[in-house]
Amino acid sequence: MTTTFPAPHTPADRAGGRRQTARAALAQYLRDHDPLASADLDVPERTWSRVGTGAGADIWLITWPAGSSTGWHDHGSASGAFTVLTGSLTEYVWTGVARASTLAERSVREFDGSHIHDVVNHGTATAVSLHAYAPTLAAMTRYELVRGRLQVTSVEQRDVAW
What family classification does the UniProt entry report for this protein (predicted)? Predict the structure, then answer.
């Protein structure tokens, strides 16, 4: 699979360095593996699986049946990057208001540790994406949109909730 990765962000601050690490881990994983070979496109609900580590990051494969969503969340202190392998995904980013962008196949999205988003498959077919988090993904904060504001509903810890 060929995916074009954007040029690194500058300056290479801590978050920028973590985004670079995540992007490099995705690129390395895609050079060495065919993640679609192990993806089950017939699953009835969104699934996620840690498929490896590389270049200082965790690598996760996520399968998105039509209509599935993450809900509003962040990735704790981890920065990350993800690429859409098949299908398309819509990412809603919270900046005080929700801003949406659609990511087509081979799109790459990078984010830092302060990134809050909800990712949705609005399509009619299953989508698959590959994600990298640096440092490793240890916690996720969940949010609910209440009267135009996000409120924390829970903090999930790795190996406890997922």
Answer: Belongs to the cysteine dioxygenase family.
Distance CA 75, CA 84 (A): 18
pLDDT of residue 19: 84
135: domain CATH number is 2.60.120.10
Q: Is 33 annotated as a binding residue?
A: no
Number of domains in the chain: 1
Query: Is 117 annotated to bind ligand?
Result: yes
Domain extent at residue 146: 14-157
User: Contacts by 7-11 with C-beta closer than 8 Å and gap 24+?
Assistant: 9/110
pLDDT-based confidence at residue 18 (cuts at 50, 70, 90): confident
> Is 9 a known ligand-binding residue?
no
**pLDDT (0 to 100) of residue 137:** 85
Q: Would 87 be classed as within a structural domain?
A: yes
SS3 at position 16: helix
Residue 162 counted as domain residue: no
